[in-house]
Amino acid sequence: MPFPKADKIWMDGELVDWDEATVHVLTPTLHYGYGVFEGIRAYPTDAGPAVFQLHPHLARLQRSARLYPPLDEAPWSLEDLTAAIEQLIRVNGHTEGCYIRPTIFLGYGEIGLNPLPSTPQTAIATWQWGAYLGEDALVNGVRVMMSSFRRIGKNTIPPAGKANGQYLNSSLAKVEAQRAGYDEAVMLSEDGFVAECTGENIFVIRDGVIRTPPLHDGPLGGITRAAVMTIARDLGFEVIETSLQRSDLYLADEIFLTGTAAELTPVREVAGYHIGPRGPVTEAVQSTFIDVVRGKVDAYRDWLHVVEL
Predict the structure, then answer these.
(1) Quick one: which H or E segment has residue 105?
(2) pTM here?
(3) Residue 162 bears catalytic tag
(4) Which end of the chain is more exposed for a tag (fewer CB within 10 A), N or C?
């Protein structure tokens, strides 16, 4: 089902009607996946809609662009992009928050595998989007399988960036999971260690200790991942970045996934191995995270960028 439209999309400094925000069919990004993007959420707070970790997300967008020249030549600063997002939230009336998708792509004018002659363009869209894996999943958890597709290798495509084309890897794993009757898929690194899910970082809890794969095993350095690690440590939990084998998932007491879209979603089953309903550690971290993004925890208010309507 298509997601709900908003009124306007920002394209290189102009507000464009949703249905008019188009690009040419011969943009190289369509043909080769040469572009970068971010996923960001804004939440309702008492002070108005607040974007969670806005500047870290936009900074990562620019870092991703540096990995894919000439995307790094896009002329818009962090301040420009921030102002554009604020403008969109106001114009589109997102008083209760929204999902935000900025992207930098190659404009029409050149075609071929050499991207350097192309001119980068920037667009930002916002829309209303609920729980990515379903509202029920936030409490009852999801079922995940072990994908037959490995996470992209460190020397294949830079896993530190969020590039359009690299998500073909994730989409194949997602389709495999959906066709097999699962909600999500866990991908292993080229060395056989747990990397991440198709669009989420993964956390494994055993004996009260929270473990998550280190970045050298291939997961994206998730901004929600980092925030959740901070929250968990502040709650008194031990959090360790360490390589995980698939058997660590089967023997876990609790598992949860994090990401802008998925937020913090528990896992109830892995490849037929029963993990159980949302456990106490997951619930404690999840409930605090929900309070944080809604502006209810003073200690983390600097993670929120409030938009005055």
Answers:
(1) strand 98-106
(2) 0.95
(3) yes
(4) N
Of 9, 123, 102, which is closest to residue 55 (Cα–Cα)? Answer: 102
> Which tens digit of pLDDT belongs to each residue from 278-301?
999 999 999 999 999 999 999 999
**CA–CA distance, 155 with 174 (Å, rounded to integer):** 23
For tokens 């930002």, the residue is 124
User: Angle CA(101)–CA(48)–CA(8) in degrees, nearest 5?
Assistant: 35
204 and 78 share one domain: no
Q: Which of 5, 8, 154, 162 is flagged as catalytic?
A: 162
Residue 267 three-state SS: strand
Q: How many domains does the chain have?
A: 2
Mutual angle of helices 223-234 and 280-293, in 10-degree steps? 110
CB 229 within 8 A of CB 239: yes
287 Cβ contact list (under 8 Å, min separation 6): none
On the CB side of 161, how many CA atoms lie within 13 Å of its CA?
25
**Residue with token string 């949703």:** 18
Residue after which a domain boundary falls, among 101, 127, 153: 127
